[in-house]
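re: ur question from earlier - yeah i can do the single chain one, its not a big deal. heres the input i used so u can compare w yours
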Amino acid sequence: MSAPNVDIRPEDVAGSGAAVTTGASDAKAAVAGRFDSGQAAADGNPGWRTGPALVEFMASFEREMNDALDSLKTMGDKIVVAAQNYAAVDGRNAEALSRIVTALDGLK
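and the output i got, formated as tokens:
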């Protein structure tokens, strides 16, 4: 059984990472302010114990959502860095192999 042929294009991987980062940032911007209605609902229904609970729930949910989006953005950033590192290592290996081939050709 032969090993599968793996074709990695660092520029495509970096582009995917950048898309993840952009998507996470865009989503975080879209989420901003979406949870503010809980306070208005609580203020509009004074005396109900559910009002403060709703405000706290929505604030907690917003924190969780923002934390998840921050993590997603961090992953996208790391994908870009990994692709850049892969390309750098690949380039160094190609250069080293070229030097070896040149040296071997000189032995003829």
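The CA atoms of residues 7 and 42 lie 56 Å apart. not sure if urs matches, ping me
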